[in-house]
Design a protein that fits this description.
761 residues, alpha/beta, Arc Repressor Mutant, subunit A, Rossmann fold, seven-stranded parallel β-sheet, binds adenosine-5'-diphosphate, binds zinc ion
Length: 761
């Protein structure tokens, strides 16, 4: 029993303790809203059959015995041990919401991500499933099993006899309305028959919104090329081993990874099991979904736009084993497949696999935990694996599979850089498109091709960069680009709070025209329209892609050629397959490169490589032009040469030197509130307590900050951050658990802990 639980139960007089040893059926409950921890209740006899692990129950809570709902996480016979347990008042769900294995997985998430278990449970079971959306309870009628016996000694009115005849002839149970209609009678004779015990009634939950499964014309297998065969064989070997193993497929864009997944899943389906395929939400396009529907009879697609009823329906189908493949975004990792055989996580480097609200889980790490628990293989795929996964593959934790060539010997596109330092136009005008890129666009369009322009708006372009030599002012300790704060006239490190006065000339080449902000990317669309009048152009970013289907419509217009120039944020860099795109332009690679984020170089490499993968997919080939003030930066050079290995070899030593992941674990704490001063003060207390905790324990942990978060004010609240780094994630977690109860924030201040953070802004 936890301390907190002890407080909630009144201490009982000694008399209660007399039958300490007697065992009783006890349910352990976790609350969604209410106290954290696990609480025991006694199960009254009348609920003994109904209660089940994974269902919700109603229980009295606290001194006032207010009614509370919680998840039943354990049922067992045990001795009360001197406690007088309160009884469970009722069982909420008729069927369990989670199987025991999934329940254990949620427990792991709660531990790993420092999130109350109840909150994890609530996030994992969709609201539509909890509320059984799209279904209702109906009374279904059938004739009594011993009808022949019973009917002998009763007198039946003619109407009643008619009803019995209809119902006996029906193959399936009927509702009251259906039976009344079929027998041409009112409800009265039916009620009479029920009273006489000749008709049995049963309450059953039925679907009332009609749902149908989408399907697609069948398509046969492609003949695999040697790389694909090797990859498939490795997965099949893992499947046949019937043991958990994680395989990392490092396959360039267009190398045919999806085809390999499909073939492996066919094997899994062949022995009656199901597969889960996770893709980033943004690549959950009809194009992707279609490829699975063409090859499997029963595919469930889980995306964020499903209605509650649709989600509930899919969930039930999956739980009943009626689905072979679940394709979905992040949360599909919780799909209740009864006999999981394989998990595939494509584009494993994608940061959208991490949930940025509690529970702040990463689907990849949850997938590893689930695959381990269910003893099935996990396949991770990417053209640009995260350094975390790459490092694990290098150290033998994962099995590495290489697919270095595109299918059908299509070449990877040529990638060139445009050095903005020497482009007169870029140096002197406020425009975003260099003379060179402009000419290339003209050429591509003249030849009937299409153009993609990538602009990175996430960059808030407040790094300090010299337009003459490309130098960026960085923190000497963290290697993070310093951010210019106009109001204070300082340049500051968002990790350790290191500050210097804003330099008036480049510290490296002494050029006096050093700039405090990047190009005005929002004006790009206007610039394109001015430069290419009459050429249909479309902007794709979170602002223009709000409504349901907007994304699809935009891509549809581009696919059909009604749009010739597609410009947008990261959103367009991923997974699109348009053979007619012959030019990709990256407007400014430096905005991503100098974000105050230790993964900035990795992000830039991913972005340039992924967007480059959008071209050269057809016969016409294609090329990529990257505008930058840092053409020699290792991340950009590696992307230009399609050289992942070179990127990893250059970046990993830096990570190691500065104790960043994958060589250390991290927890990021963000404190926010209305008053900047109060937030700063509380953040300082937290940092101090954490430092003390680690000093006492004597480990090698580091506490950085507090410093203003890069987004130092969001939605009217000031934000400060603290970063904890260390080799042992459990020690970092333990420190947060310890200070939690000790340091209560003032009203109006909240703080969160993000374990294994990806968002550093
Ligand atoms: P990736 O997932 O690695 O980017 P895809 O699986 O999308 O690659 O394959 C790229 C394209 O090549 C798709 O249009 C796919 O249909 C096609 N493709 C895949 N494998 C083969 C093959 N063995 N023979 C011919 N075409 C293939
Ligand atoms: Zn620093």
């Amino acid at each position: 029993m936890t301390e907190r639980q002890r407080d909630l139960f009144d201490r009982q007089p000694a008399a209660w303790q007399c039958d300490d040893a007697a065992e009783q059926l006890t349910a352990t409950i976790v609350f969604v809203e209410g106290p954290e921890g696990e609480f025991d209740y006694v199960v009254p006899d009348r609920l003994a059959d109904e209660i089940e692990v994974g269902k919700r129950v109603r229980v009295p809570l606290g001194r006032g015995n207010r009614a509370a709902t919680g998840y039943c996480v354990r049922v067992e016979q045990k001795a009360a041990g001197g406690r007088k347990l309160k009884p469970v008042s009722g069982v909420v769900d008729s069927t369990r919401l989670l199987a025991p294995a999934m329940l254990r997985l949620t427990g792991w998430i709660a531990e790993h991500y420092l999130c109350p278990w109840g909150q994890v449970l609530d996030a994992v079971v969709p609201a539509g499933v909890r509320g059984q959306a799209g279904t209702r309870l109906t009374t279904l009628l059938s004739v009594a099993g011993d009808l022949q016996e019973r009917v002998k000694d009763v007198k039946l009115a003619p109407k009643q006899a008619a009803v019995l005849k209809v119902l006996s002839a029906a193959n399936e149970p009927m509702t009251i309305t259906e039976l009344g209609r079929a027998a041409g009678c009112t409800e009265a004779p039916i009620t009479a028959l029920r009273r006489k015990g000749l008709i049995r009634a049963e309450a059953r939950r039925v679907q009332f919104t009609a749902m149908t499964e989408a399907s697609a014309p069948r398509r046969g297998d492609l003949a695999l090329n040697p790389d694909q065969k090797t990859a498939l064989e490795a997965i099949l070997a893992a499947l046949q081993g019937r043991r958990h193993q994680t395989l990392l497929i490092h396959g360039v864009t267009g190398s045919g990874k999806t085809e390999v997944y499909i073939r492996a899943i066919q094997e899994v389906v062949g022995f009656g099991r199901q597969a889960i395929v996770l893709v980033p939400e943004i690549s959950l396009t009809p194009q992707t979904v279609q490829r699975f529907r063409e090859r499997f009879d029963h595919v469930a697609v889980l995306h964020s736009h499903l209605s509650d009823a649709e989600r509930q329906w899919q969930w039930q189908r999956i739980a009943e084993g009626g689905v072979q493949v679940v394709v979905g975004a992040r949360s599909a990792i919780f799909a209740p497949t009864p006999h999981l055989g394989l998990i595939v996580l494509d584009e494993e480097h994608e940061s959208s696999f991490k949930q940025e609200s509690a529970p702040r889980y990463h689907a990849r790490d949850v997938a590893i935990a689930r695959a381990e628990a269910e003893d099935v293989p996990l396949v991770l795929g990417s053209a640009t694996p995260s350094l975390e996964s790459w490092h694990r593959a290098q150290t033998g934790v994962y099995r590495l599979i290489d697919m270095p060539r595109r299918v059908l010997d299509r070449p990877l596109p040529a990638v060139g850089t445009i050095d903005l330092r020497t482009d007169d136009h870029a140096r002197h005008s406020r425009g975003s498109i260099s003379r060179h890129l402009h000419a290339a666009m003209h050429e591509a369009l003249d030849r009937g091709g299409q153009v993609i322009l990538l602009l990175n708006r996430r960059g808030f372009s407040t790094h300090i960069q010299c337009p003459s030599c490309g130098n960026v002012v960085r923190c000497p300790d963290c290697d993070i680009a310093l951010t210019h704060h106009r109001s204070l006239d300082v340049a500051l490190c968002h990790y350790c709070d290191h500050q210097i006065p804003t330099p008036s000339a480049c510290p490296q080449c002494h050029f006096a025209g050093i700039r405090y902000s990047g190009t005005g990317t929002q004006r790009l669309e206007a610039e394109v329209r001015t430069r290419f009048p009459g050429v249909p152009c479309l902007r794709m970013d979170t602002d223009t892609m709000q409504g349901r289907g907007a994304h699809e419509r935009a891509l549809g217009a581009f696919r059909e050629g009604r749009v010739r120039i597609l410009l947008g944020t990261q959103m367009i860099a991923k997974g699109l397959d348009f053979p007619n795109v012959t030019l990709v332009g990256v407007i400014n690679a430096d905005t991503a490169l100098h974000l105050p984020d230790f993964r900035a170089a990795e992000r830039t490499f991913h972005l340039v490589t992924q967007v480059a993968g959008r071209t050269g997919r057809g016969e016409k080939g294609g090329r990529v032009l990257v505008q930058t003030l840092n053409p020699d930066h290792p991340a950009i050079q590696a992307a230009v040469h399609h050289d992942y290995q070179a990127f990893a070899d250059g970046e990993l030593p830096i990570r190691k030197m500065l104790s960043y992941p994958p060589f250390a674990r991290m927890i990021r704490i963000v404190v926010r509130g209305q008053s900047e001063e109060a937030v700063a003060r509380f953040a300082a207390c937290l940092a101090e307590e954490l430092t003390k905790t680690f000093q006492q324990a004597g480990g090698g942990e580091r506490v950085l900050g507090p410093a203003p978060a890069p987004f130092s004010k969001l939605r009217g609240k000031y934000r400060f951050q603290i970063q904890m780094q260390g080799s042992d994630a459990d020690r970092l977690r333990q420190a947060v658990r310890e200070i939690g109860p000790r340091l209560k924030p003032p009203d109006d201040i909240q703080w969160i802990a993000d374990v294994d953070p990806l968002d550093m802004l």
